[in-house]
Amino acid sequence: MADLHTKNAGNETVWDVCELDPSAIEAYWARVGETLRRVFDVSSGDADDSVRRLRERLVNDGSAETQLHFYHLDPFQVAADLVSGDGSKVVTADEMSRYVDMLNLAGDLHPDRAVL
Predict the structure, then answer these.
(1) Considering the entire predicted model, what is its pTM?
(2) How far is the C-alpha of 65 from the C-alpha of 61, rounded, in Å?
(3) Domain annotation covers residue 77
(4) Distance CA 98, CA 44 (A)
(5) pLDDT of the residue at 106
(6) Can you name the residues that pair with 13 across neighbouring β-strands?
(7) How many domains is the chain built from?
(8) b (16+ CB within 10 A) / e for 64-91
(9) H helices, E strands: number in the chain
């Protein structure tokens, strides 16, 4: 998955949400949706609705700074929070294992990157 926090050319740090690569943002939300479906067994329609509602809320209610900071969250944690509704979801070892398997299949698990 592309790094949301650096610009493509020269790896300069992003300081404003409008500087984020739109394709990286789409990949981020796709990962949240995929995690909902494949890790937490949420139906495709419900996963899409949850992601859409959260994105709308973030754009409508969040400052540019809040939006930028939001993209520092791991898509796995965002999906877990969406599943619980109140952020109280306790992630099981099986769910974590499914997420790691999903990252391995996508080629996105790097030894220098902490999963959680």
Answers:
(1) 0.78
(2) 11
(3) yes
(4) 17
(5) 79
(6) 6
(7) 1
(8) eeebbebbeebbbebbbbbbeeeeebeb
(9) 5, 0
